[in-house]
Amino acid sequence: MYFVNVIFLSILLLIKPNISAATTHESFKINGFEVHLIDVAKGNKLAMQYIVPVGSRMDPSHLAGRAHFLEHMVLKGSHRYPGYNTQNELSAKIGALGNASTDLGKTEHYLIVKDIYAQQGIDLFFAGLAGPEFKPEVLAHELTAVENEINKEFVTKPFVNLVYSNVDVLPEGHPLKRWDLGTTDILANMRVEDLKQLFYGTYAPEFVKVVIAGNFSNGKLDKKTLKKWLKSSLVPTKLKNDKEGFVLTEKPAVLSELPSLVSSTEPLPFLEYKAKDSSRMGMHLIDNSLAEFSGDLLALDYLNMYLESTASGSLASTLKEKGWCNGVTIDTKIASGRIYYSVFFNYTKAGWNHREEILESFYQALLDVKEKGIDDYTLGIIKGLMLDNLTESFKSAPGAMNAFTGLLETKNVDILNLDFSKALEKVNSKDVQELVLRFFNPLKSVNVFISPDVVSNGYSQAFSKKYRKFKNNKLLNKLADSLAQKKDLSINQVYKPNYVVVPEFKTNTTPLPMENSDWVTVGDSHSGLVSQLKEDHSDVNGAFQFTSYLDILNNYEAQVAAIVYLMAFKDSISEVRTVLRSRAIYIDVSINGNQLVWSGDGEAQSLNAAFQYVADLFMNYKPSAKQLKTALEIYKSNIINGISSSFIGSLAKSYTLSAVSGFANYEQASELAKAMTPTKIKNLFSNFTLNGQSELLVLGDYSAEDVLAFRSSASNGTQNKIQVSNIKAPKYAKDIQQVENVNIQLPQGKDINTVGIARIYTGPELINLKENAIATLLGKFLHSKVFNLNRSERGLGYVHGASTNIIGDHKQFSFYGQIDDPERLSEVQEGWEQVMQALRNRALDDVELENYKMGVVSDLTFSPYSLLEEVHRAAFNYQMISDFNYVDNVIEEVKKLTPDDIFNFANKYFKPETPYYEVQIKNCSDALTEQ
Questions:
Q1: Nearest CA to 395 among 862, 110, 699, 40?
Q2: What DSSP designation does 255 have?
Q3: pLDDT per residue over 13-29, tens digit each?
Q4: What is the DSSP letter of 662?
Q5: Is the dihedral of CA 814, 819, 822, 824 positive or negative?
Q6: For every residue of 569-620, which 3-state class applies, written as one string?
Q7: What does pTM read for this prediction?
Q8: Based on C-alpha coordinates, what's the Rg of the chain?
Q9: 239-245 CB contacts, 8 Å cutoff, 24+ apart
Q10: Tens of pLDDT along 158-186?
Q11: 762 and 918 in contact (C-beta within 8 Å)?
């Protein structure tokens, strides 16, 4: 799978002073491979990854797309585990989650598995590295998936569009004049021998880096055992064992230089073009050799966060106040010794007419930083955010593994030793100033302005290829000259703090007395509240979820209005939330149907004060017409983005679930948003109350003998503001009684031949514990079977699958897929029926069932990434079925299941004549035309 991953250092390093006293990193060699071991000292998951420093831009033109094709082949059968779908099936049976990605300069493979299945996971994961099968029939089979991926998925990715938008306009010989992912003709003529040349020459110990993260000091794994398993499973491939007698004639691709995206001899043009399906977006790209990059990468992250911030007077807020942009997004990417920098402006309609001023505003912001630096207060806020994000990344094995991927390419010793606080303390405002002076040059960059034919936060998917060069060279020279002036840098602390100052929340270290009226024992509590606290009740890290029902949200129009109202509110307090985040306090609020859901995470007593603070702001919020209008425009953009960035099969599933659950789908929401006005929204919220049964949970460190439930003072503190009653949640899902076929015309043009289809079967009621255990197991089983059958074996394309969804009081089984040839649409449904018929025919033996039971138990017993996720799960279960232990009870039922239980269930719910709800989506050919 090709991801133009914009996960660069800003996600890696953007990421509270002390991660954990027990978090450690060590490196060593095993069988020639460089292995990095990260002990996160918590959780029960093992995450592993290997990184090969070769990507799509290292492919020769006549083999463009080879690195990506090879990434697929490594996953499709190995000598240790032969068979096209073997890795998918075995991963599912042990509850492992894995995938791979190829970008411009590297290829990454990863697997996440529960620690009790670590040995099996390690052996399975590194089997492809030890040698794929390389069967010609697999190559031909996988061609469909590769082509579907680059033709349907890649076009929604901004970095791909940025690179490929230049292919037609650039002169021959220019480094950007190539299709890195290959064309249909090149991919169709790819040979096994071509892939072997790349694999044997590059997937070798001297080039491959391995990263493994997990709990090795407090969990079931220890490092000695892990190294023993690695020694037997992490073994290099042996060319002499190739059965076809293959001879390596190419030099390792990793030794070739990664071509620059920016030519130093010929400046890249600024381009403008119109697209039949485009967003309001400008892109700015700078490329440089990492070795030549003189600035500190951490300083670059400081700069990025400063430019993206919502602080008063910042670049993003200034452009937003002028009505030109909805936001600014900055991406930094490191790949095989090169660093890429991209800035994305989400234009409004007015912004398109001021695109030159927007570009100039960006460079003016850089110039201000170069000349004046960043004031101490704002720098402190940014540092707090970066430290906190790093802490969050290393709270789990998967997060640590992903973050460490980029750290491997840095030379910062403190960062590699996981001492982020020390590393960040060394960065000051002058470092950021130096970086701006030396790194940015608008004459060596490419800018693409996309004409706004539609309102969207998405990315261009179909270029009309009517390009013209940006003509304002006077502006470019002016910007370049202003940044290149090498005068002495000085830091003038002349600005007032940009961020709003919110109260400093102090931790109460005085133990709360047991007789405190807020506290009751578990047995005496009758509300959905639970807390796990350590004995002295001080310095507790906790999380909460507070749910109330909005009595006004009784129809689609009110739901849309509420979403827009909440978007405006959250934007109005974005500076407050930024400051809270820098102190590791997270407060959020969202609309879910007719529910208003508050959630939070952080030190418990500070969290309590922060919740009161934000709740007061919400109840006293008086939005202006301009705020609501801006939020409404962004909401409209989000709708189009949700459509344009999705596969049609996934869209069909979304529409089906919306129809069954009673929520507005994209089309309905779009029509309602068009008719919505700020006045209508304000009238709706002029006098409202929040009614409902609250679920408020706070969890933290605790001793087993001191488990308490309490009515949090966070709730008590807002009782005068938020009226709480015992109104029950309405039943969202309607009973499915008949077949419904719906053809939906989407408001954008893609491939006219593509058709998406989804179907829902009614499942058991939530109160039936045993049937819910079966449904949970079948959700995993059906997805694996449908995906492997339709996507791979039948060659129907990339998007095919199944899932289990909770809607109202029932579980529903959804099947979905898409096809580019409408005449083969019946084959999609035939695949579903084939899988279900096999179940009805008892085609599931004891061994296979036990394997899937292991996978489900593994999924359900994964330690949550955070307290907030644990709170969400507990609150959701309690809200649905009043059972905090629901997941644990399902696990016990899964362990007891027999094949007969599965067969009886399948015959009950999956009969061919069983009522279902079905949606079919077809595309428009003339929905969008150039203005």
A1: 40
A2: G
A3: 333 334 555 689 999 99
A4: T
A5: negative
A6: HHHHCHHHHHHHHHCCCEEEEEEECCEEEEEEEEEHHHHHHHHHHHHHHHHC
A7: 0.87
A8: 28
A9: 239/200, 241/131, 242/196, 242/200
A10: 566 666 666 766 677 777 777 888 888 89
A11: no
